[in-house]
Amino acid sequence: MSYQGYPPASPYGQPPPPQGGGYYQQPPPQQHHQQSPYGAPPPHASYNAYQQPPQAYGQPPPGPPPGQYGAPPPQPYGAPAHSPPPGQYGAPPPPHAPYYPSGPPQAGYGAPPPHAGGYGQPPGPPPHQPYGAPPATPTTYPPQPYAVQYPPTPPSPGYGPAMSIPWNPDPDADRLRKAMKGWGTDEKELIRVLADKDPLQINLLREAFSKRHRRDLIADIKSETSSWFEEGLVMLARGPLLNDVHMLYNAMDGAGTNEDILNDILLRRSNADLKAIKAEFSRVFRRSLEEMVRGELSMKTERHFMIVLGATRAEDAAPVVKADIDRDVDDIYNATEGKIGTDEMRVCSILSLRNNNQIRAISYEYRQKYARDLDTVIQKQEFSGHMKDALLIQLRHGTDKYMLQARLLEDAMAGLGTKDRLLTSRLVRAHWDRENLRNVKNAYEQRYKTKLYKRVQGETSGDYQRLLVAICGEPI
């Protein structure tokens, strides 16, 4: 089996020349997922199952309405086409669209940005703030006058309100206590209990441990273990949301700033997840996340992250509009290659406020129009180190989020020494969504010609090694 990745073909018109491999030959099996423009796989589809249809990929049907590229082509996973509204490519998912753990299939964005002088500015605050979050700190960006409301992307598991699930955590809570009680610690039992829980289970397990044994699970883990093994167990026991806020605080507390942690946690997130992170950060540390980030960053990089923390990114349900994609492509060109110097904030604004389908469309259209990869353009332009890294993460997440995670994992292991905190946190974050982890492992094997868990084994040892291998989904 091999990881196929996002198809290189256009969602309309003929595909660009193949790069790094041929096109897929067999038609995909018929499935019933919501259609996703620009070749995005639905969250529950395996990359190994995807193959491209034999016909000219993405050729629009004859006689499209004026001003449109025509009906969307057959998508990679065989979803039936829907008639888009006039002037738009794709359409918001219907109200009965199924819930996906990593969010619904993505579509494009809504309103065009304002005229010159206010390009790409975030719209006004959302109608509500979950988790009791304080309103976002105002920035210098005025709201978009033509913003269109679309159904909000649901929060990721573990970032929404507490949910009741048909699972009893008491037996596992007792196993954890037994593994740490008395002389010695049963490290393998700790791994077996903690490494296979989903976000909802881990929160219930932590609460059950406290109620049944009148003890704090995280404090007990810290007292019984050490080093990176301890840190990995604590990341699992906290669950995704609580761990995010602790890692953010530690990345900014004291001298220096761990910019990689800020990038990993704050970029690529839905509006709902960002609002949950800001609210939880305020609850735990009695500080505003925006204020703390502003104190750690400076100048244009600070402004970039303030746009991100505004949590006004286009929702996944917003449609892709061809005219808006073309305008974004031209604006990026005029802000980079088309002038002397670089208008960094224009590029930051576009990549921070568009959803994945829009970014994928922008990347494709940029290559079609200017015969250069947008990834290469960002690397060669006059962006600072941290800003450049952040923009590349935003772009690569939009074009192939699984391959991006594979590359970030390899970056944590490449070279002299292992960046253990990044490796552990990135593996833990990937494992909360099992379908996501499966695709990340396939992407890693496709790019680096070895299995992820074997690479991890070569960089670690002892209980720490066994923990990370178990997080990868392998038996210990």
UniProtKB/TrEMBL annotation:
The record ties this protein, via SMART domains, to:
ANX
Q: Which residues form a coiled coil?
A: none
The cross-references to Gene3D superfamilies, in alphabetical order and at most eight, read: Annexin
Q: Where is the composition biased (Pro residues)?
A: 8-19, 59-104, 122-149
**Any keyword Phosphoprotein?**
no
- What Gene Ontology cellular component terms go with this record? cytoplasm; nucleus; plasma membrane; vesicle membrane
Specify residue ranges for compositional bias: Low complexity: 49-58
According to the UniProt record, where is the region Disordered? 1-149
Record's family? Belongs to the annexin family.
Q: A single Gene Ontology molecular function, please?
A: phosphatidylserine binding
Q: What is known of its domains?
A: A pair of annexin repeats may form one binding site for calcium and phospholipid.
Q: Which UniProt keywords apply?
A: Annexin, Calcium, Calcium/phospholipid-binding, Repeat
Which named protein is this?
Answer: Annexin
Q: Which organism is it from?
A: Sordaria macrospora (strain ATCC MYA-333 / DSM 997 / K(L3346) / K-hell)
